[in-house]
């Protein structure tokens, strides 16, 4: 009975998303303008988190400059929500028109040399539309993106359905290595996207670095570890918003042979590229995310409580 109810809720919600997505983008942006007022002025969704993140990340900016970024961020965030809904019905030809790529030759070169490719990106601009990379890759290549399961299973299934429409496969972070091994055994090359700017848990990573004026930023290293273990080339997706509904992605090479690099050097290269991208247009990063909730003090307390984690010093 519970499963039946869950399925009914899913199809009702997906049907609603699909119907809304059929509206022209100009109409969806009108909805977005209304949503901005509700989210920013009425609900004040995570305003304190955003204000604190901006204050600590850009101490050199005036309060007025940070408020400008904050307001622009919420305007974009509202657009992001409706752009994601649009994925439910957006045809592939329209996606090609709205998201342009440069640097695809770096992926082609890696594949030609027999290397699978790890795509480094952050929660920047519309990361949901990055699934459009599948439209520009050879059919025989396995295309996927790593995702973290949402707490709400109905919403999780909804996002998975939307994210797969451009032809890529959703891979749970819990089975990433297993999926890669299976594809390698099948003799297939892979192009897989990794969003690597979340706040990691202590057992999963032990690398600290400077990021956006935060001297002790704990960084996810799983992408690098998998790339080195499975001989992936690594590229960075430098995404820019040109105007509402239009994006430019420049594919920038990090390394063709990841196993030749010292530990954490590829991760550091990614962090520096992402930081540069954010500083250029800070309003398009996900500031509502509590990126710096993991601290050195918390880490030390975790170790004292019995967490068996090898200490790796800050770079």
Nearest-angstrom radius of gyration?
Answer: 20 Å
What sort of overall outline do the alpha carbons produce when their principal axes are compared? Answer: globular
Helices and strands, in order, run as: HHHHHEHEEHEHEEEHEEHH
Helix tally equals 11
Distance between the termini: 53 Å
User: What is the overall pLDDT average?
Assistant: 92
Helix fraction by DSSP (H/I, runs of at least 4): 40-55%
Strand content: 15-25%
User: Strand count, sense and closure of the main sheet?
Assistant: 7 strands, mixed
Strand pairing plus helix content: what structural class?
Answer: alpha/beta
Spatial strand order of the main sheet: 1-9-8-2-5-3-4
Unreliable residue runs: 311-315
Q: Could you give the count of β-strands?
A: 9
Q: What are the SSEs and their pairings?
A:
Layout: H1 2-21, H2 25-42, H3 47-57, H4 63-86, H5 92-98, E1 99-102, H6 104-112, E2 116-121, E3 142-147, H7 153-163, E4 169-172, H8 176-185, E5 190-195, E6 207-211, E7 214-219, H9 222-230, E8 232-243, E9 246-255, H10 265-280, H11 296-304
Parallel strand pairs: 1-9, 2-5, 2-8, 3-4, 3-5
Antiparallel strand pairs: 6-7, 8-9
Helix pairs in contact: 1-7, 2-4, 3-4
């Amino acid at each position: 009975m519970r499963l039946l109810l869950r399925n009914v809720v899913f199809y009702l919600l997906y049907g609603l998303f699909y119907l809304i997505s059929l509206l022209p983008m100009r109409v969806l942006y009108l909805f977005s303008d209304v949503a901005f007022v509700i989210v920013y002025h009425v609900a004040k969704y995570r305003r304190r988190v955003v204000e604190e993140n901006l204050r600590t990340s850009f101490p050199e900016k005036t309060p007025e400059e940070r408020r400008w970024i904050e307001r622009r961020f919420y305007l974009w965030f509202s657009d992001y929500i409706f752009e994601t809904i649009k994925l439910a019905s957006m045809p592939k030809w329209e996606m090609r028109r709205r998201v342009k790529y440069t640097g695809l030759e770096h992926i082609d070169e890696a594949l030609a040399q027999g290397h699978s490719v790890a795509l480094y990106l952050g929660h920047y601009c519309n990361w949901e539309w990055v699934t459009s990379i599948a439209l520009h890759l050879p059919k025989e290549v396995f295309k996927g993106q790593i995702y973290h399961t949402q707490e709400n299973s109905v919403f999780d299934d909804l996002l998975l359905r939307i994210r797969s429409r451009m032809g890529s496969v959703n891979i749970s972070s819990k089975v990433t290595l297993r999926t890669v091994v299976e594809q390698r055994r099948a003799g297939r090359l892979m192009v897989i996207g990794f969003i690597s700017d979340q706040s990691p848990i202590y057992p999963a990573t032990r690398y600290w670095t400077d990021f956006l004026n935060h001297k002790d930023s704990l960084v996810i290293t799983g992408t690098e570890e998998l790339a080195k273990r499975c001989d992936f080339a690594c590229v960075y997706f430098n995404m820019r918003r040109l105007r509402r509904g239009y994006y430019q992605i420049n594919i920038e090479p990090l390394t063709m042979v990841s196993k030749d690099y010292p530990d954490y050097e590829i991760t550091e290269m990614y962090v520096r590229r992402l930081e540069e991208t954010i500083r250029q247009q800070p309003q398009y990063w996900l500031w509502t995310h509590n990126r710096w909730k993991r601290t050195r003090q918390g880490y030390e307390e975790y170790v004292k409580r019995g967490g068996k984690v090898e200490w790796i010093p800050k770079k």
